[in-house]
Amino acid sequence: MKSLSVVGTLAMFLVGGGIVVHGIAPLHHAIEQFSSAQGSVVAAILPTLLNLVLGFIVGAIVVAAEAGMVFLVSDEVKPKKGGPRMIVTGYSSGMVECRWHDGYSIKREAFREDELQPGDGQHKRDKA
């Protein structure tokens, strides 16, 4: 099972890198042009290898960005000044987006991280 998880993780990095490369046309064309100038075996393997490397780089950037976040999506939070329990639904422009039900409808608002505190149901972050 461990080998399957390693292969699956590598596949995720490979696919992610491929999505990024195909989304940036000049990068995609540069890789294809550079690869075609190599020998036939290298030309076949090089684009895949470069997609994998780019997937690792993008993945590392995402992990670094996530490490700086105080709250994770789906965490329960409450305003420090009092208010309803809310669920974090995302981050946008440095703000924490939250939703809650006020008894009549679903409300949503964005808060600065320093305006919020963990709620009773906050997920415990794994220590790695």
From TrEMBL:
Keywords, ordered alphabetically: Membrane, Transmembrane, Transmembrane helix
Membrane-spanning residues: 39-72
Cellular component per GO, a single term: plasma membrane
Any Pfam family matching the protein: DUF808
InterPro entries: DUF2158, YedI
PANTHER family, A to Z: INNER MEMBRANE PROTEIN YEDI (PTHR30503)
The protein's name: Inner membrane protein
Organism: Oryza sativa subsp. indica (Rice)
